[in-house]
Design goal:
By secondary structure, the chain is mainly alpha-helical. It contains three helices and no strands. Helix 1 packs antiparallel against helix 2. It is globular, with a radius of gyration of 13 Å. The N and C termini lie far apart (about 30 Å).
């Protein structure tokens, strides 16, 4: 499944479960940054994301701040 679709499905699910608007906005920001990072690194499918890839992302975010 493409990341853009998966992230939208997740956000739709959170809305359906009556998650607060603040949390939805936070999910949109954080998930959007992760999706952008993946696309910049030629990762477009959810199946391509591993634990180590997610760890690389969190490490890169940490060192940028």
């Amino acid at each position: 499944m493409f990341l853009k679709f998966a992230s939208q499905d997740f956000l739709d699910d959170r809305r359906f479960k009556n998650t607060t608007k603040t949390n939805i906005k936070n999910y949109e920001i954080l998930l959007g940054k992760f999706v952008d990072y993946c696309i910049e690194n030629q990762v477009a499918n959810v199946e391509e994301i591993s634990y180590s890839y997610a760890l690389l992302y969190t490490t890169s975010v940490y060192w940028k701040s």
